[in-house]
Amino acid sequence: MTTSFMARFAQNRGAMVGLLILALVLLLAVCAPLLYPESPWRMVQRPFLAPGEVAGFPLGTDTMGRDVAAGLAHGAWVSLLIGLVSTAVALSIGVPLGALAGYFGGRVDDVLMRLTEFFQTIPNFALAIVLVAILEPSTSSIVLAIAVVSWPPVARLVRGEFLSLKRREYVEAALLVGQRHRDIIIKQILPNALSPIIVLASLMVATAILLESSLSFLGLGDPDTMSWGYMIGAARTVMRQAWWLSVIPGVAILLTVLALNLVGEGLDDALNPQLARPRQ
Q1: I need a surface site. Which of 69, 84, 103, 209 has the fewest CB within 10 A?
Q2: Cβ count within 10 A of residue 156
Q3: What are the structural domains of the chain?
Q4: Can you list the pairs that 231-236 forms with residues at least 24 positions away whose Cβ atoms lie under 8 Å?
Q5: Of the candidates 93, 91, 84, 94, which has an alpha carbon nearest to the alpha carbon of residue 139?
Q6: For the whole model, what pTM was predicted?
Q7: Distance of alpha carbon 176 from its chain centroid, rounded?
Q8: 234: CB partners within 8 A, 6+ apart
């Protein structure tokens, strides 16, 4: 089964390109302390050096004379970490709530879905801004804010899957032999609902990276952590004078988000071959 999944995934050229880009971003993030052992906040040259203008600074320097390449490398780790952790937290909230709502139905479903709808009525970005502003900007508050605005779609997806799967014969058989509800949810239904959850999770990481970048751009990022969003925000007042300070981290965000979406599409095709779109 694993071999057939990998074969189907490899047939999607876009997914393989996305996987390659993600591997390069991850390699950059892991190697950042080795490539640039000094702090990315350290001023190392005169400000506004253009890319390639001075040897040793391939991407130039920013408004404070800091190495743009060092900031890009260290920012990759921050963006990936926030994206992955916030998605994990969102899944830990949305999956149990959706599972309980879909499995038990009735009043449990009504209460949990009304709670989900309440969070969905508030614009995601506005709620994230409010939460970070209340909790004070930090990595932990950003992760929490992104998780809070990201879990409702997970809950709705899992609820729909459980509503469909709980009527299957193997679930009815498990009830007849006296299995506990917890065991049926965890061992019988949830494993069969993992495919769409995995696909959604890959897309959520991309959304989380965009949200973190947007918050940092507005000055609500962790002031002690270099991130791609901070780099763009710090350079927004000098775009005409030094366009590369915004373009370089912007392209990094674009490529990473695009790669995650391509991988998500590949996972969808590989995990659901009967729904796969024909390739030209």
Answers
A1: 84
A2: 19
A3: 2-34+65-271 (1.10.3720.10)
A4: 231/62, 231/68, 231/71, 231/72, 231/75, 234/62, 234/63, 235/62, 235/63
A5: 84
A6: 0.88
A7: 40
A8: 62, 63, 245
